[in-house]
Amino acid sequence: MGEKEEKSPDGVRYFKLSEIEEQNTFKSTWIIIHNKVYDVTKFLEEHPGGEEVLREQAGGDATESFEDVGHSTDAREMAQDMIIGELHPDDRDKLAKPVESLVTTLHEEPSWWSNWVIPALTAAIITLVYRMCTQDSE
Predict the structure, then answer these.
(1) For 89-138, how does the pLDDT look when each residue is reduced to its tens digit (9 = 90+)?
(2) Greater model confidence, 9 or 124
(3) What are 67-89's pLDDT values in tens digits?
(4) What gap in Å lies between CA 38 and CA 80, rounded to an integer?
(5) What is the pLDDT of residue 125?
(6) How far, in Å, CA of 109 to CA of 117, rounded?
(7) Nearest by Cα to 88 from 29, 21, 31, 36
């Protein structure tokens, strides 16, 4: 933690992303969820999903994984006790998800359609051609 600790006027402690990334050891395990920094070191063995799940996210942004699991209200309340600060505002854009993910999702719908309809039509045409060829030879 060679970097200067920064606090906001309201007393929130800020951590640089590089500082959080260093906290990926057995002695110290930090994760980021919704730009808040959590020290989950003492919780590793108690985590219902296993400590491996937390270790995979250590030193980085676990927001998506945390939300995908659908943690209970109790779990969210427990997590509040582990907050040690927030990700520095200057580093938050480094965690931002690309905007194109929404566009990609919108373009997947025609892809699904073409992945089923085109092969089905191709199979139907081949079957018809095959039947027409075999009927002529009889």
Answers:
(1) 888 887 765 444 454 555 555 565 567 777 888 889 999 998 888 886 65
(2) 124
(3) 888 888 888 888 899 899 998 88
(4) 8
(5) 93
(6) 12
(7) 36
Do 40 and 54 meet the contact criterion of CB atoms below 8 Å apart?
yes
- On whether the CB atoms of residues 85 and 23 are closer than 8 A, the answer is no
**Contact by Cβ (8 Å): 88, 17:** yes
For residue 2, the model assigns a pLDDT of: 45
In this prediction, residue 43 carries a pLDDT of 87
Q: Tokens 């699991």, residue?
A: 69
Q: What is the 3-state secondary structure (H, E, C) of the chain?
A: CCCCCEECCCCCEEECHHHHHCCECCCCEEEEECCEEEECHHHCCCCCCCHHHHHHHCCCECHHHHHHHCCCHHHHHHHHCCEEEEECHHHHHHCCCCCHHHHHHHHHHHHHHHHHHHHHHHHHHHHHHHHHHHHHCC
